[in-house]
Amino acid sequence: MEDVSSLAEVTLSIERLGSDHHLWVELFKGLSGVKSLSAQNENSHGCFGFISPLPVFQNMKHLELNRFWNPEFIPLILERSPQLTCLCVKHVHDYSKHEESDWIEPKVVPACMLTNLTTIKFKCVGQKCVIQLMEYMLRNAEVLKTVTITWRNLCFQEETRLAAKLLKVPRASRDCEISFIGAKLL
Known about the structure:
Distance between the termini: 46 Å
Oligomer: single chain
Largest sheet: 7 strands, parallel
Order of helices and strands: EHEEHEHEHEHE
Number of strands: 7
Radius of gyration: 16 Å
Number of helices: 5
Strand content: 15-25%
Strand order of the largest sheet: 1-2-3-4-5-6-7
């Protein structure tokens, strides 16, 4: 791979990297200096589970993930992104578990959630594990200002039920405002 360490912003569409963890680690090492990373998986065969060890993304302030990281991966990359201020998750595929499985909460809260993460945007279909991830983030992100959740393919009753559930979660940040967008809530 070429030296891309000086890139400030990277948009990445991944089609055929597969589950070779070594290639993923090398790709992320090469991108560890970026300020903004937008990554989308185009691989129809699923995605990897966990990447270890991830490099530290010391400069990254904006991260957008679309269509490929399972819920357990998100805290791992947050842990390696201490300056992150904005997280956008456009669609979570949980290939490793059944849609209704429980999410395992990390033992340590990533530093960015305590000091820098002010904006979260999620687009989801209401999987239990993703709702649990959002609850965790609301309970632990201390400087969070805005959370925008866009529902996809849910009936009005389910959108309303999930919105009410998330609004009841105690927030670590007193300044946090939650907005819901959905075809049925409009």
